[in-house]
Amino acid sequence: MKALVYTGPRQMEFRDEPGPEPGAGEVLVEVEAVGICGSDMHAYFGHDDRRPAPLILGHEACGRAMTGRHEGRRVVINPLVSCGRCDDCQGGRANLCAAREIISMPPRQGAFAEMIKIPETNVIVVPEDMDPAHAALTEPIATALHAVGVAQPPVWRPLGECRALVLGGGAIGLSAALVLKSRGARNIHVADTNPLRRGTSENAGGLSVVDPTLPGAIAENGFELVIDAVGGQATRRAASAAVAPGGVIAHIGLQDSDDGLDIRKLTLQEVTFVGTYTYTMVDFRATVTAIEEGVLGPLDWIEQRPLSDGPAAFDDLEHGRTAASKVVLVP
Q: In degrees rounded to 5, what are phi and psi of residue 38?
């Protein structure tokens, strides 16, 4: 099969690779669309020791089941493979399973390929008329939906009365803003340093989009809820400054592990800081329903490219040459 293979820092090669051979309980899926995630970019830069070259990256995938009880049907893939037996799994928090694995990380190859194998319990059937590129957004949107669900309980006032700030206008950040909007939030700001992506967020409608590099663009102590969809030192510092007394910071991004939080402010002003990681299968199913029902809008903030164009797509993302919040590759 053809696959896009990470072969070293800033090196992606479109080449022939052996096809996957499903094991017990696994099914074969023919990939129809797969998104490029920020974690793929992190690996591409050589910054992720968990993803050594050579490796097929990609975990945001939709395709058609070629084997198993859903054979012939369009499915989305939950890339997080858990043990199913531990307290976390059986308590509905498989995303915290200590034995969890994820495709695109050894020992599991990713979805930048024509085919992938995956446990049958990790696929969800989607409507046949759902655009595969939209279905491939299930994973990043589920991450955002889960984050909002984790962040909402400690917020001390209804979302409709909150001032919300999302740092980062990529797929997860923009999705988080759209999930907030769908749940009644009306005062939502999205901050992104890329002017092309700011334009995309503005076109999504109902959001106030700002350039965080401009003095005064983000009000200090101005937001009851701050979602950091970048997870870098600069955004943690910005979140600390922007959160209001008694507010909540939800941290999704994993750009780096440097400092940036103002621990003194978090303590003296009773700010809640919550980490939020991936999703549960319940989040996944809720996201499929939201996409199907158009709850999050037309999802026209993506750009589709052939899988063979993957190396150029990674280069364009690195240098900010695309306005899309998500680039989706099509095998």
A: -60, -35
